[in-house]
Amino acid sequence: MPFELFVALRYLREGRLQTWLILAGIGVGVGVIIFLSALINGLQQSLIDRTLGSQAQVVVRPPEEMPRILPRADSALVSSVVQRPPQRVRSIVEWQRVMSLLRRTPGVVAVAPTVAGPAMAVRGPGSTAVTIRGVDIDSYESIVDLRGRLVAGTFDLAGFKAVVGTELARELGVGVGGRIRIQAAGDRGGVYTVPGIFDLGSKDLNQRWIFVSLRGAQTMFDLDGGVSTLEVKGDQVFQAEELAGRIRDRTGLDAESWMARNGDLLVGLRSQSQSSVMIQVFVILAVALGIASVLAVSVVQKSREIGILKATGTRTGSVTRIFLLQGAVLGAVGSLVGIAIGTTLALFFANLARNPDGSPTFPVDLNLWLFGRSVAVALTVGLLAAILPARRAARMDPATVIRNG
Amino acid sequence: MDDTISLLRVEALTKTYGERVVTHVLKGIDLEIRSGELCALTGPSGSGKTTLLNLMGLLDRPTSGRILLRGQDTTPLDDASRTRLRARSLGFVFQFHHLLTAFTAAENVLLPLLSLHGNKEPWMRERALTLLAEVGLSDRADYRVTDLSGGQQQRVAVARSLVMDPPLVLADEPTGNLDTQAGEQVLRLMRSFNERRGTAFLIVTHDESVADLCHRVVHMVDGRVDSDTRNGVEGWEQDGGTSVQTHEPLS
């Protein structure tokens, strides 16, 4: 065992109560960091999963239609009022070529063509406004896990079949095997059988969305083989805005990321992260001050012994390392204690309450990266906190401390 | 013919303390310690004995003058070089033993070795145990030093001072804090090491009986060497200050 480590460990062992107290302090500090991070990361991941569980990371649409004023040949001065026209369901021009281009775009994992448009769902006297989403279920599954969201029946969209949400089914009083009429603009539509009912985790979407086959929606909105949107999944959830920018640049189409669509959610997540970081900074500061004060006291207590060590040939660098190692050992062991405390707390919280679907009310995200980061932070803080005491010890003059006893 | 060698020589050594009120503690000391010597440094309190010992032990720097350790002038050396030189050439025994309380007797003895070599090796403990046996403490090797008596602690300190096998040990009032019997034991040990292995000792003491056991007595008064006499103790040729003893390494 190296000399410095041997002496550092012995001094820590000799400090018993002092050592145990500071280890407990570091442990609680690191435990709080791990618990908070696990809880906040878990909640954020859960929120993002819920949000992206029903929508694509990037949605590509044709650009909005805007009227243009035609230039007049006689250069006459004309006063005109330009009104924004009502938007209609339109197809992306040459969408197969665009889809192929998107698939070759860096960062894109999957692309699915869809048709989306407004309609009315009618059953007997009941009727409600809905959004029809025509999808090719196989390609759309790579964007959103629809089959995983089914609560009853099957996701079979062949022919005149429409899968509805739980709220809409309740509102129209329809169950699996029941029938509803879907009426789009221009008197297009028909009677559809309901083969399944989904729950996307959002009351609004469960009330408004109806999934039909891509071909059925094309007919309903008179798109004749066209698609109104291309939905894209990227490899990085939080790079969706950059991906949307790249798609806009490449295609000239409108591309909107989930981040742009859910601005409020992102602000909330960022505020949560910032509060968490602030709490962690204060905890780290408290831990650092704890380690520094314990080592500063130790240097005063050990000043005579440091003098003896130097008198008997211990180099100044070795004395510095003895105290730095004490800081590092306190940080490392304290962080292991903290991992145990944080993990226990997090698991306790995760099992404290559960949602009706069995998922934890407080989901926690414990992972190796979090543990590794905590050890690294505690180790660094331990070393940094030990610098001043170590320098003070190194500067001690052996003759003076021996003379003064 | 003198077959001893000069271990430590100080030339015109002065030491002052304070800036506004200057205290001259040493006022030009010339002194040489040769191999195999058992030398007492005596004098009244405040005569500068401990200051001289600290300077000779490279624990402090002189105001002026030179300190030559085995012929090498240590005055221009930096702290790291002085520490290295001190570790290899000098042993220390302090009045209050100054052992490290967190360690056992054996660990206290081997710490200077460990500090020099960096890593703990089995031979270091072997050497510490050999020395502890020589000072009569083989059965106390694994005792915490706080569990030992004052005399036993001082014997551990003597063993520690010899673990690096230095040619010269500097002892500051090694018996000053011990009862007569324990003090005699420690002195006997020092003399025994001096006779058997030729280790030179410079012992600062107030005690005349300690000085009587030494070959040479340097008496200081008011920061100066007042007298430098040689005793006719057994094993020492009084005239000429020569000795047949040479330093015999431990290992």
Précis, in short:
The complex is a heterodimer of chains A (about 400) and B (about 250). With about 400 residues, chain A is α+β, with helices and mostly antiparallel strands. Chain A folds into two domains: about 5-50 and about 265-405, no CATH class; about 95-250, no CATH class.
Description:
The complex is a heterodimer of chains A (405) and B (251). By secondary structure, chain A is an alpha+beta fold. Chain A has two domains: 3-51 and 265-403, no CATH class; 95-252, no CATH class. Chain A has helices spanning 3-14, 16-52, 95-103, 137-140, 166-172, 203-208, 214-220, 240-251, 258-261, 263-301, 303-311, 316-350, 368-395, 398-403; strands at 58-61, 108-123, 126-135, 150-153, 163-165, 179-184, 188-193, 196-198, 209-213, 229-234, 254-257. In chain A, strands 1, 2, 3, 4, 5, 6, 7, 8, 9, 10 and 11 form an eleven-stranded mixed beta sheet that branches. In chain A, strand 2 and strand 3 (126-135) form a beta hairpin. In chain A, helix 2 (16-52) crosses helix 12 and helix 10 packs across helix 12 (316-350). The radius of gyration of chain A is 32 Å and the shape is elongated. The model of chain A has no long low-confidence stretch (mean pLDDT 85). In chain B, helix 3 packs across helix 4. Chain B has 251 residues and is α/β, with parallel strands linked by helices. The longest helix of chain B has 18 residues, at 180-197. Chain B has a single domain, classed as P-loop containing nucleotide triphosphate hydrolases (Rossmann fold). In chain B, strands 6-7-8-3-9-10 form a six-stranded mixed beta sheet. A four-stranded antiparallel beta sheet of chain B has the order 2-1-4-5, with helices on one face. Helix content of chain B is 32%, strand content 25%. Chain B is globular and about 50 Å long. Chain A binds chain B through residues 1-3, 6-7, 10-11, 13-14, 304-305, 307-318, 397-399, 402-403, 405, and chain B through 50, 54, 57, 59-60, 79-80, 83-84, 86-88, 92, 94, 96, 98-103, 111-112, 114-120, 160, 164.
